[in-house]
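User: Fold this, then the next.

Assistant: Folding the first:
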Amino acid sequence: MSEAGRRVTGNLRRVASEEMGIAFGVALARRWFMHTGAGAPSVAVDVDVALDDGRIFGAGAPVRRVAGRRPDYVLVAPAPGSRNRYRFRVLECKGTKSPGYAEPQLASAVEQLDGVAIGKWVPHGLATSIITSEAETCYRAVDTIEGTEPSYEVTPEMIEQPRDFRLEAERPEVLAAEIAGASVRASWAMLADFGSNLEALRNWAPETMLGRTNRRPRVRTTFDTPLGTANGTSITFGFDRERLTVRYGVDASVDDRLAGESAEAVLEAQRTFAGRLGESEVQGWAPESQTVYSATAGGSIFSLTLERGR
């Protein structure tokens, strides 16, 4: 490890390890979505927030807890080839240093995948165990794909519903559709938070999420990327003779639409960006600048730039 890596100790190391385990799990989930023809998730919604008081982000439509334990995340993905339709899956992330412990972890994780139902349907799920032994870093994963997978229409009107809307529990199909709308709305709030767009965060965050989110204004900047202009924040860290610049951004058009109140305008901006992303090779290193980019169909653009001193 580098000198900077060796300075990550104690509780900081535990937190960093957990965050990396989740990052690997979400990366595997994106690959899983694409390999099963389900598109790519634009966001992972934290189930502990979604299931607050048995509701998804404070909405009247319950994401029912059907078991005592539940998965970590609900994954939200636009359905390929369909306008305004989304698929929902669940993800449970585990991690260990011992390869022999990975299988028992996965057995436990698979049980947790059945802990959430959307309407009357238990979503397809993925359980991952990231193994970080001294010899290597690898993973084990199990999915629970079985039978057909529904998709749900999400209209602008559903997304613009009041944050505290109520539904009749005896109408499961409508219930699931409303949950879908609430999930997409919450994903936009998370996207706004990623880019530090506090006005947009207030626009789209359901009441429960706003109550849990305390953000201070940050200096925002505009920067160029292979996918166009992005708005967001930038921070630089110095390590001996190296400098690492981290940028969290959102495509400028998506960012501008999020600051408005039109769900249709946000959906259209995201569709345009997703099309541009599909035609690009942005994922990966740009050797001439030592910058790596990562982007999602929802409009987020993340980059790392490493500069080495002579």
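Now the next one, as you asked:
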Amino acid sequence: MTPQVAEETAQRLPARQRSMASADTAPADTAPPPERTDAELLIAASILLADAALTAKQAGAELTGALSSWRFGLETLRRPAWALGAATACLKALTGPSGLGFGANGGVVGELARMAGSVTYRRPAKVAMAVDAFAMRIRAIAADHPNLDSPLARRLTDAMVGGNRIEALRATYALVERLGVTRALTTVSPVIMELMALLGLLDENPVNDSFSWVTLAGGVPTTDPFLGLPSSLLRYLNPGPGRAERAEPDAILAKVLATSRNDIVSYVGDIGALGNHGLVLLRRIACADGAVRHALLLPGTSFGLLSNSTPQDLVGAFDGLLRTDTTYTRAVKKLLRRAGVPAGSELMLVGHSLGGLTAMNLATDLDVASTYRITHVVTLGSPIDGKRPADHTTRVISLVNKHDVIPMLDGRGPASPNDIPENWVELAWLDESYDYPLSHAPQAYSDTLRGEMAHYREQVNQLISTYDGEIVGNQPYMLRDK
């Protein structure tokens, strides 16, 4: 297999994802599995189809690589009759409707053939199976999100599955006209990754398919779904070295901080009071066990402009999702040095949205993880599932409102077959804050944790109880791009 193909197929479905489907093929003498819902059966079937699609893609790449290799050319000179028969059989398997159905890919020759197939509307077997897998995911999600099963929403999803972009545009217009932009976005948010993946698979653009295949395999896409532009381009849009300057709290922030304590609802309130115009907070705590620990509070994105003078902008949000070394992380590292946080100090990172992403990006940074002991990463509404902390002892706690579209941008939606690591704690719920962006606001998370999900509040507070004690320092910092 060529290196390119190996890279593309590296994120194959892990064994645990296929365990749901394997129960259907268990020997007759084993105990019957517990009865599953239709949604679970659909997800199990989608896992099988996704695995088959990825296998067909890999088979096409290996056949293409074999036909275009110099070894095959050498054998052609030695044994022309054999080479003709082998080439005929391979081409039949690659292009025949009973085979891979124009499944060439990988390498220069394979990619040129794949692009030609995309432009000429050829749909290979791998694409047909991938589309069916996405369609099953969408149907499974609709079981828990009834608004997706409404006639208008179903019209949109059916058009996307069928590759009918004109009808999809009409259906989108009808949905927005009926529900408004925010309610329409909230309605399709549980399947937004599947819809974008279908768009990439079924359009004529041959260079944006990577997004779809990575999404199918459960990875975090590193290209955009429309033009196929690589995430590495973001470094040129977000190149700031980062800067951190001490700041004084205004009257409102000072009032909020005066009542702060080691409580997840209190942390969310503090983050809300910091706003999203560049402020973060470093807290010093004299803990009950005699140790001095630090907590760093990181707010999320400002949606006013695509880019501004702080790391908390939309460009920074996309950069934080796809990369780990960002202007936000660089500014925070300078903050920690400027504040004189001693090496080896225990540090808890708490962040909302982009702030949660940045917290996880800092935890994945080997320099940060080797300088400080990051004990906890607590995130709210953050798409962090594709990232892993450098220190395996770091406790990751992810709080997710299922109506919030932002946490799904990591590729792990409601029907994704992927699971988080077993030592992570993910607490998810559906509440009354249905519409985005209300469902993403810090206030929506704190209100829920105060109310019907108070048991989650207690669970998180127990997990972070080592930070119980007296707050001896609350220092805001203003972060700038440069």
